[in-house]
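Our consortium's second objective concerns turning raw sequence data into structural hypotheses that experimental partners can test. To show how far this objective has progressed, the report includes one record in full. It was chosen at random from the queue rather than selected for favorable results. The single chain below, 67 residues long, was entered without modification.
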Amino acid sequence: MALQQSLETVHAGFSRGILLREHGRFNQHLHPQTLLIEIGGHENTMEEVLRATRLLAQAVMALAPAR
């Protein structure tokens, strides 16, 4: 949820939101700090996916504690 909020702060409208499923598991149960992030879809180009990855990285870094 914090990453979603950071995405909205850094790049409003970038994310389609978070889909929570009560009965679905995607290997996130294997480690307590696992996060599945899907970038792009079958209609996106590789250029779009790479551009989205850079924007996602900015949002992740905004969450990182200052050193």
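The partners drew two points from this record. The chain has a mean pLDDT of 84. The radius of gyration is 13 Å. Both points have been shared with the crystallography group to help prioritize constructs.
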